[in-house]
Amino acid sequence: MSFWEYLSNRHVQVLTDSLQHASAVFQCMVAATVIGVLIGVLTYRSEWAGNLATAATASILTVPSLALIGLLIPLVGLGVAPTVIALTLYGLLPIVRNAVVGLRGVDPSLVDAARGIGMSRLAQLVKVELPLAWPPILTGIRVSTQMLMGIAAIAAFASGPGLGNLIFRGVASLGSANAHNQVLAGTLGIVVLALLFDAAYVLIGRLTIPRGIRA
């Protein structure tokens, strides 16, 4: 059976796995973005705190994804839970690092001006600092998403959702008629999803970043 014949016969399953893969990555990116930006906001004013936050999230990436998921299985079981926890943790570093860098890069004179017109500390952060730091934060989100697209395939080891199931089934049945087609379908599906997500981020950037800041 050719690859295109395989897709024609199994397109429903491939589409289902693709939607599950995209949903898992999207939800974990939302969680990682909220947590990562919050960590950046809490630590960027202190040199040692910012460095500690960056180092701590970087250390997570030194743990092999298969090992981390394996360690989580006895704690939270199989399925969605270990997938969500692992992906959220792996997505933190680029967001935390870029949030810290972006917030530290805001022109102090703009913050002083906001303070001078009576803005509270929270208002300064929400209306001045975070909007100006948004471009590097968005870049961190894009990088994290591309990473998680590939890492999410490992979730199949813990019976997680997504295209990794196709890849694992294909690898487990090497030599069978459709083994190569399964691996190829899963891999190409992840690549296509990564490109679609990145295109969406480019559009979000054009809609949310003023032209003067982009320039």
From TrEMBL:
Pfam families: BPD_transp_1 (PF00528). This is ABC transporter permease. GO terms for cellular component: plasma membrane. It is found in: Cell membrane; Membrane. It comes from the Bacteria. PROSITE patterns: ABC_TM1. GO terms for biological process: glycine betaine transport; transmembrane transport. The chain crosses the membrane at residues 24-44, 51-73, 79-96, 147-168, 183-204. The lineage of its organism: Bacteria, Bacillati, Actinomycetota, Actinomycetes, Kitasatosporales. Its main location: membrane. It comes from Streptomyces daliensis. Residues 18-201 form the ABC transmembrane type-1 domain. Gene3D superfamilies: MetI-like. It is a multi-pass membrane protein. Belongs to the binding-protein-dependent transport system permease family. Keywords: Membrane, Transmembrane, Transmembrane helix, Transport.
